[in-house]
Amino acid sequence: MGGERGSVAAELALAVPAVVLALLLGAGALGAASRQVALQDASADAARLLGRGEGLGAAEGVVRAAVPGAGVSASRRGELVCVTSSVEVSWGAAVRMPLRASSCALDGGL
């Protein structure tokens, strides 16, 4: 009976770190997904601002207010003005993942 109690403790000692790691990775993935959605939404807002004739500074401000540290670039493609935003998210020092979002709006549209 004493040996069984020791084996249960050993199994629990192995299972707890695995569960904690799975929870941390899941939380990190949810955080990255929410930043991706915020980046996409901010890129769409910035493209609409540029399409209405606002300056690049206003578009960059919208993106950086939504996702601090994001980089912004804009380009024109025919009748469209497009904004591409990017940011790198990290989970500690080990995991880094670049996120990118792009959106276009009519140039001169209302």
Short overview:
It comes from Microbacterium aurugineum. The protein has 110 residues and is α+β, with helices and mostly antiparallel strands. The chain is built from 2 helices and 3 strands.
Write the layout of secondary structure elements.
Layout lengths: L1 H50 L4 H11 L4 E7 L2 E12 L3 E12 L4
Antiparallel strand pairs: 1-2, 2-3
Helix pairs in contact: 1-2
Task: Give structural attributes.
2 helices; rod-shaped; alpha+beta; about 110 residues
Explain how this protein is built.
The protein has about 110 residues and is an alpha+beta fold. It has one domain. Helix content is about 55%, strand content about 30%. It has 2 helices and 3 strands. The chain has helices at about 1-50, 55-65; strands at about 70-75, 80-90, 95-105. A 3-stranded antiparallel sheet has the order 1-2-3. Helix 1 (about 1-50) packs antiparallel against helix 2 (about 55-65). The chain is rod-shaped and about 75 Å long. The mean pLDDT is about 90.
Roughly what fraction of the amino acids lie in strands? Answer: 25-35%
Strand segment tally: 3
Strand arrangement within the widest β-sheet reads 1-2-3
Evaluate the radius of gyration: 22 Å
The unreliable regions are: none
Terminus-to-terminus distance = 78 Å
The share of residues in helices is 55-70%
Keywords: Membrane, Transmembrane, Transmembrane helix
Organism: Microbacterium aurugineum
Protein name: TadE-like protein
